[in-house]
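Final report, Chapter 2: Outcomes

The project's central promise was a pipeline that accepts a single protein chain and returns its three-dimensional structure in a standardized token representation, suitable for archiving and comparison. That pipeline is now operational. To close this chapter, we reproduce one record exactly as it appears in the project archive, with the input sequence first and the structure output second.
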Amino acid sequence: MPNPDRLLRSFQQAVRACRDTPGRVGRVIRLVDAAEVLIAGDLHGSLNNFRALMEKADLAKFPNRHLVVQELVHGPYRYPTGGDKSHQLIDVLATLKCQYPRQVHMLLGNHEMAEWTGQRIAKGDEYLNALFYQGLVSAYAERAQDIYAAYRQLFAVLPLAIRTANRVFLSHSLPPATRLLTFDPAALERDETEIDDVKPGGSVYSLLWGRDTRSEHVAAFLAKVDADLLITG
């Protein structure tokens, strides 16, 4: 495992890099100088999939190629002593954001928001939040709380959406039809997300938890965010 103090410094730098990403307005990024965008959906802690993705991205060779990743935590990989290993992917990505601050973008997903806001999330009979923290204890022992606080600080500044110059809108999901009328795109462009936005029914919560991808509903959402195409996780 990385040295905890060194990792904490990387996370501080990654938080600054997220806030300083060119084209950022609130928590929406309008990509600058992006000739190509490579987008990956639900990674859920898979380092093998991430390695293959990095080989494909080849960011050092293609400085105008951008990489967008999402749904990073809560995976199937476990420590022998118990706990979820998916935090390892966050550790790697924080370092990568520092290395390529302009090209690497981590979109906030519903699982990261659950960790950030303290919302319990379960799959089957397992509480994923508890497994995630148990993984930190397995990896970092008495420093687990410090590392967890750093993760939450990072999740609090991750972009909620990305826009491309050719009017493509990237987000983890889209609001359900029952919430589209009250969904406020301006909430995404606030520098500090408000508490009501991450509660059930709030604009950020709705953006990350919706699952309705019917063509007519997507068209209505795109009209509301002023875009032509939608790519979700």
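Archive annotation: Strands lie at 24-25, 28-30, 36-42, 65-70, 104-107, 122-123, 126-127, 161-163, 168-170, 229-231.
This record, like all others produced under the grant, will remain available to the consortium after the project formally closes.
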